[in-house]
Amino acid sequence: MSQLKQLITNDMKLALKAQDKSALKAIRMILGAIKQKEIDERIDLDDTQVMAVIQKMVKQRKDSISQFSDAGRTDLVEVEEAELSIINNYMPKQLSEAEIEAAVDKAISDSGADSMKDMGKLMGTLKGQLDGQADMGLVSQLIKSKLS
Question: Given this structure, which CATH class describes domain 3-90?
């Protein structure tokens, strides 16, 4: 069992003992998603694969929050934000916008990119470097603004 999965399982036990229903619900949701992936692919996930599942859940929550906000459903926004705050506990430390911008600038200068046709190459390079530590949507926006 991966260390991250073990940590999440231990946190579930703590939430059960503390009778923290919202945390317990979110943690069970994470473990359910991990278990589903393991069953679908017939493997035990390592930390990197568990992190990918968690990142997908974070993205889903952010999308849901945006859609619920647009629809004026503040009750659902609060539920999603509560789940997101618990899920984020398992994400690596996020880089600041300045750190992301510095990484984008370095990638552009290192690759010699000078137009939008280099966008895919830059995104591929930066995804490997910043995966899990930065919102790739923000990275994409920064690249577009610097190359246009």
Answer: mainly alpha
Decide if 143 contacts 123 (C-beta within 8 A): yes
d(CA 145, CA 44): 41
**Are the beta carbons of 77 and 69 closer than 8 angstroms?**
yes
Q: What is the DSSP string of 69-115?
A: HHTT-HHHHHHHHHHHHHHGGGSPPPPPHHHHHHHHHHHHHHHT--S
CATH of region 97-147 = 1.10.10.410
Residue 29 Cα to chain centre, angstroms: 15
Q: How far is CA 102 from CA 67, 106, 137, in A?
A: 31, 6, 16
Whether pTM > 0.85 for this model: the answer is: no
Residue 40 confidence (pLDDT) above 90: yes
At a CB cut-off of 8 Å and minimum separation 6, what does 21 contact? none
Query: How many other CB atoms are found less than 10 A from the CB of residue 53?
Result: 20
**Quick check: 72 pLDDT over 90?**
yes
